[in-house]
């Protein structure tokens, strides 16, 4: 990095790999960090973006403000002006790119699932350990102020001993049977279906607020077994496919029973073909003295029941300054934060990890934990038995 004076902001050079929706979101989040987290004392500079698609590279320069673009991601990792890297590519490229970033000594922020399989995630974690770098994994729902408030209440004992947990990650983004068969439906390129794509978020959230999941029992099903092949060029997954029907190779729906190390019992299910829910990513935690409920579709609300004698049941608490990082985005309760704000917090946690050398953001170790729960769930789907989740090393 370029030397800075004691009073001037430290400039962080950013490299981006893959300029899709998530890559654009990462780029906006980096730009927003100095405004919302001024105490970090940093400026972000969008140096270079890599994407093999010319139209995507043009977007990176014209819309996002990157100084230059390249087709080969290795050029991003070799660039001495790049201090941090965002990896926003499809799942099947994650391990290759993350390991290369670690070997180049570049701290990286990677989206989940971190790898197609737990074996990919283990290779990434080993490379990061060898390099001694800080990292971040895209578990952005941790950053919702309602989740921060939920975690605080549980830790303070407000709901007593946690007895059971319910989670649901229900979406309709693949409910159209004529939507094209993209890489997300191929086992070799995506790994699992909703287990890694959606449930990994819920599993991470449950562990974040309740504690470690020690064992799981699971079932899954593929309900739309064939999809038409896509056309050429950039695929719009909302447009119907035009090619011949090909088999879907991973699950549309999965359900898990979970046992937590602290004695709590959990149940969680997920679907990508559900009709009705658009993005119902919900977490409910019940205890001996009360319960807490949150749904991403009502991002800025937490349902709270802390008094068993309350005849009205739940009270809706609207997020406001004092709840998580809400104060950085809105001045008063009732004015809502959005999804992009959660990614800005995530970017800030990553950059704080980089400038302090201390792991603040969810790391590849957390990504590996989620992958190992998915691996145990897949083993259970195969043999119908409970499977233990390996303890974190």
From TrEMBL:
The entry's keywords: NAD, Oxidoreductase
UniProt-listed Pfam families: GFO_IDH_MocA, GFO_IDH_MocA_C3
InterPro entries: Gfo/Idh/MocA-like_OxRdtase_N, Gfo/Idh/MocA_oxidrdct_glycsds, GFO_IDH_MocA-like_dom, NAD(P)-bd_dom_sf
Source species: Pseudoclavibacter terrae
Matches recorded under PANTHER family: BCDNA.GH03377
Single GO MF descriptor: nucleotide binding
Every GFO/IDH/MocA-like oxidoreductase domain range: 148-293
Gfo/Idh/MocA-like oxidoreductase N-terminal domain span: 13-139
Name used for this protein in its record: Gfo/Idh/MocA family oxidoreductase
């Amino acid at each position: 990095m370029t030397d800075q004076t004691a009073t001037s902001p430290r400039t962080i050079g950013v490299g981006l790999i893959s300029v899709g929706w998530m890559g654009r979101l990462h780029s906006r989040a980096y730009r927003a960090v100095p405004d919302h987290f001024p105490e970090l004392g940093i400026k972000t500079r969008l140096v270079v973006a890599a994407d093999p698609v010319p139209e995507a590279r043009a977007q990176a320069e014209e819309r996002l403000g990157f100084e230059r673009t390249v087709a080969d991601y290795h050029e991003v990792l070799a660039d001495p002006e790049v201090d941090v890297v965002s990896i926003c590519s499809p799942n099947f490229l994650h391990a290759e790119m993350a390991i290369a970033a670690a070997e180049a000594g570049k701290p990286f922020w990677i989206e989940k699932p971190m790898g197609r399989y737990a074996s990919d995630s283990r290779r990434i974690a080993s490379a990061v350990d060898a390099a001694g770098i800080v990292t971040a994994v895209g578990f952005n729902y941790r950053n919702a102020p309602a989740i921060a408030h939920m975690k605080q209440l549980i830790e303070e004992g407000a709901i007593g001993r946690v007895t059971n947990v319910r989670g649901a990650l229900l979406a309709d983004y693949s409910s159209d049977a004529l939507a094209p068969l993209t890489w997300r439906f191929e086992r070799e390129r995506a790994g699992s279906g909703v287990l890694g794509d959606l449930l990994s978020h819920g599993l991470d959230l449950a562990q974040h607020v309740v504690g470690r999941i020690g064992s799981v029992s699971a079932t899954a099903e593929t309900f739309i077994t064939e999809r038409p092949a896509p056309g050429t060029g950039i695929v719009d997954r909302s447009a119907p496919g035009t090619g011949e029907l090909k088999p879907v190779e991973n699950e549309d729906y999965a359900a898990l029973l979970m046992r937590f190390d602290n004695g709590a019992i959990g149940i969680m299910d997920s679907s990508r073909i559900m009709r009705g829910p658009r993005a119902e990513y919900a977490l409910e935690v019940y205890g001996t003295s009360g319960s807490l409920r949150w749904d991403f579709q009502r991002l800025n609300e937490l349902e709270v029941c802390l008094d068993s004698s309350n005849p009205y049941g739940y009270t809706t608490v609207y997020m406001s300054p004092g709840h998580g990082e809400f104060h950085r985005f809105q001045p008063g309760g009732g004015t809502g934060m959005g999804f992009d704000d959660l990614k800005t917090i995530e970017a800030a946690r990553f950059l704080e990890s980089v400038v302090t050398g201390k792991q603040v953001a969810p790391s590849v170790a957390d990504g590996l934990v989620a992958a190992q729960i998915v691996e145990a769930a897949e083993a259970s789907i195969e043999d119908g038995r409970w499977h233990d989740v390996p303890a974190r090393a």
